[in-house]
Amino acid sequence: MAEVRARSRFVRVPPRKARLVIDEVRGRDINEALNILRFTPRYAARMVEKVLRSAMANAQQNHGVKDIDLLFVKRAYVDVGPTAKRFRPRAMGRATPIKKRTSHLTIVLEEREASHWKLGSSKRALRKT
């Protein structure tokens, strides 16, 4: 199976905050990534979860993936979108700029080989304790 991609552009989340969330799901299995996002108390987690679910739907509808449990997050990254500039009035006739930053979220999924999909064969299980 080829790579499956989903993008969400012009999301009203600063890239710096979105990267904190997206770094947590990179390289993880789909179910594990969804659980992490479900219990992450950040607005960016809701946006990343939407993109992840969209990528899962793309895999089923467009690429004919039968078992979505074999999918994992191959790549996930945040690009900087356009910044809306606003001004806030301050004391003595001054004004200070407000930057409303936006992000472009991209998640790429790939199907794991069935031979690698065994209990305890994850990277964390192979680490020395």
Secondary structure elements and pairings:
Layout lengths: L3 E8 L3 H11 L4 H9 L4 H21 L7 E10 L3 E6 L5 E6 L2 E9 L11 H4 L3
Antiparallel strand pairs: 1-5, 2-5, 3-4
Task: Output the number of helix runs.
Answer: 4
Architecture, according to CATH? Alpha-Beta Complex
Terminus-to-terminus distance:
34 Å
Strand order of the largest sheet: 1-5-2
**SSE sequence, one letter per element:** EHHHEEEEH
CATH-wise, what's the superfamily? Ribosomal protein L22/L17
Explain what you see:
- The protein is α+β, with helices and mostly antiparallel strands and 129 residues long.
- It has a single domain (4-113), classed as Alpha-Beta Complex (Ribosomal Protein L22, Chain A).
- It contains 4 helices and 5 strands.
- The protein has helices spanning 15-25, 30-38, 43-63, 123-126; strands at residues 4-11, 71-80, 84-89, 95-100, 103-111.
- The chain has a 3-stranded antiparallel sheet. The protein has a two-stranded antiparallel sheet with strand order 3-4.
- Strand 3 (84-89) and strand 4 form a beta hairpin.
- The radius of gyration is 18 Å and the shape is elongated.
- The mean pLDDT is 90.
Name the features.
single chain, 129 residues, Ribosomal Protein L22, Chain A, three-stranded antiparallel sheet, 30% strand, elongated
Offer a concise description of the structure.
By secondary structure, this protein is of the alpha+beta class. It contains four helices and five strands; from the N terminus they run E-H-H-H-E-E-E-E-H. The longest helix has 21 residues, at 43-63.
